[in-house]
Structure prediction request, 212 residues.
Amino acid sequence: MGLREVKAARTRRQVIDVALGLFLDEGYDETTMEQIAAKAEIGTTTLYRYFPSKDVLILDPFQRIMDLGKLLGARPVDEPLNFALGATLQQLVEELDERDDGRNAALRKIVDSAPVPRARLWDLYAQAQRELEGAIAERMDRPVEDLLVIMTAHTTFAVLRIAAESWWTGRRDASTAGVIDEVLRALNTLDLVIPALPPAAAPSPKSPRRRS
Prediction:
């Protein structure tokens, strides 16, 4: 990485840190891009060049979710898919724990109460799920629109969401990685109920016709 790239990365990190602090102290709606630029000691034009809007800034702690497909793609090709997916989830949340400076839970509450960032967060999840579907399809050697591929990706995301929601709503006694380990262990003991069509009803016996 060259000097220019190092400086740009440092500036981005500084802006994100300043912005997240202001969102927590002043409120998301009350914080302006001009305030962020002033506190980060950069020009407003420079700020908009790095970050076109506030919602991009507040969603930065959750951007790591986008790496799920890439992390799965980096797993050994001969590793069974179920183990590869479990290891991928563990690696993701361990890295999220390492980057968490104690503000992520409070920031998530702000995101949940602000319509624009909340909508963009769900867009982020949807994009990450599509990329995960692509990585799963490649490992399964199936089309990305294959139902097995789609259900595998949905299930993987469900595990991640269950663990994340459990932690965000109060399981602060454990790390996110610890919570997801619990979910994965519990999942292996469940007799999952999958929606199914009811068996076709047996035809009613016909009543014999009466002779006139």
Q: What stands out?
A: The longest helix spans residues 115-140. The radius of gyration is 24 Å.
